[in-house]
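FIELD: query
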Amino acid sequence: MIRSATPRPRAVPPDAVRWLGWALFCVLAWQGTQVGLFALNQIRMDPASLPAQLRGNMAANPVAFLLHTVLGGLALLVAPVQFVPAIRRRWRGLHRWLGRSYVVLCLLSGLAAYPVAFGTVAGPVAAWGFATMATAWLVTTGLAWWHAWRRNIAAHRRWIIRSYALTLSAVLLRFLLWLAISLRLDFWTVYQATAWASWLLTLAAAELFLVLSAVRTGSARRMMPAAPPAGSTSRTDQSSAS
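FIELD: result
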C-alpha cells in the first residue's frame, strides 16, 4: 500500500518577514513623527489643544506635563533615525550622540510622567497604568544604554526595540482616544483601559517582532552550508594535491 506524502506547510520566507517589519516600522515612525510634532506644540501650554476631559491634567501639574510631553515628543522624532542601517554604518558618531540624546529624553520624560500619572483626573486605574508604563520605559531604556556601554550590541538592539515600542505607545494612546471621541464611547472608560492597553499592545508587538526576527535569523543560518571542520581537507583538495 502506497502512502501519500503529507505536504509540509511552507515556511514564511525570511525576506518576507524582513520587509513586513520594515513596512510596519515606516508606518509607525511616520505616525510617531506626527504625534511628536503635536507634542512639541504643547510648549505653548494651550489647554484648547487637548480634549476637554484632559485639560485638568495640564492644570494640575503644568511643569511636569510640559516636560513629559515635549521631551517625549522629541524622543519620538529622534528614535526612528537610529534604526536606519545606513546611518549606523556610515555615521557612527551621529548614531551614538543621537542615541545618548534619546536616552536622556526618555529618562527625563519618564520621570516627569509620575506626577502627571498620579495627578490624573481619571482615577487610580489610569494613574497606575501610566505609572507602570513609565517604569517599564525607564527600565528598558536604561538597559538599552547599559548594554550599549558594555558593547553587547545584540542585547542593546533587543532592549532599544522594547524602549521604542513603549515610546510609540503615545501614538496608540491618541488613536484610541480619537476613536472613543469619534464613536461617542464613554471617554473615561476608554481612557482607563487605554492607560494599560496602549503600552501593553505596543510592547507585545515588539516581543513578537523579536521572536520573528530570531526565527528568520535561525532559518537563514540553517540555509547556509556548513563549514568543514578545522584541519580537514575535501576530496577535491586531496585529489588535486595528489
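FIELD: remark
The mean pLDDT is 79.
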